[in-house]
Write a structure and sequence with these properties.
alpha+beta, Double Stranded RNA Binding Domain, hpI Integrase, Chain A, five-stranded mixed beta sheet, three-stranded antiparallel beta sheet, 15 helices, elongated
Length: 412
Amino acid sequence: MEYPSRARLTEAAVKRFAPDGKTTQKMIADEGQPGLYLKIGLTMQTYVVQRQIKDPTKKDGRATVRRTLGTPTDLSVAEARSAARAELHKIEEEGAERARHRRDRKAITLGEAWLAYRAKLIRKSRSPGTISDYENKLTSEKGMASLLDKSLATLSEQPEIAADLHAKITARSGPYFANGCMRVFRAVYNDARKNRRLGLAPENPTDAVEWNPEKRADDSVPPAGLPDWYSEVCALDNGVRRAFHLFCLFSAMRPGALAIARWEHVDLENRVLHVPNPKGGEKRAFNLPLCRQLIGCLRLARAHGRRLHPVLAQTYVFPAESADGHISEWREKSVRAVGKELRQTWATYAARIQVNDLFMKLLMNHAIGSDVTRGYVTTDLLLPQLLEAQQSVADAIYWDLKDQEISRDLAA
């Protein structure tokens, strides 16, 4: 049967346009109500409404919305037209609301996107230190504060804004800090685009950035420099801080994770320090073996902590008069190497005495990569072997200190 593409639908016409068992689909537009169609299938008829609406996410900026109203058995032609008018009005309202919502979402600022990303990091239990570092780079005046009120859409359409700011941050705060700012910006933008469906361009604004070349710093303390380094540490007035730096030297612990250590995390019977929230968050929690030198550092910290901060020392291994109650800043004007430099020193010694790669990574709490076989390793069952490796590294460092004063320090 030949079906027209348009007709004025009547009850008689609907009966005349009954399915012929051959036509799979035919849409007959009602001349009496724009947007109403009688759809003919193999075995049945249905009334549908169809309307094109604006949709900037589509290639041609338009989208077709089609909805079923019912069958001629359920609705008369007059009822179908009435239902069509109501449904078409609803489609128009929904389209306008989506457009408004899309405009609102597209107007989201970098500052608003950061707050959403920050909340996500907290939900994923990322370490407070990492979140604080990101926030400093994105919201401080020396970082990207000047862009916080800019919409992501604007930053996407004008990538030169990010490139210019990167150059300015490089000039005032250094190349590494500038690159770090842009890495955080890149992560925030990608999160907003992928996870919040903001209709943003897939090209990241940082694609226009001329990244500063970076070279891994080599700031480890050479063996010949260890005695002088130890003399600098011994000259510190605060015994808790002396113990802190010595612990970093003998353990390769990241200072941010070590600073928040609590006595409840120390298990001297099993010779481990539990580190519940290291870099990478709770999912990277691990147990650090405690060699003889580290146990000496803990005794030194306890003795001086009880004397200097008797209340705080009940909780924190390295108490301090800070807002958090523990050491929060570990840089020393008079000590040449602290924190990361001591991790590098430990790693260099571990390599010198040929500690195997897996044990080095586990003791430094580095990711062991995507190797499937290593993924089967149960780390805690290796604690005796890890303690032996750590003791070997600590003994090599201890030997090169060449100063008997350290024996009295660690026996405090």
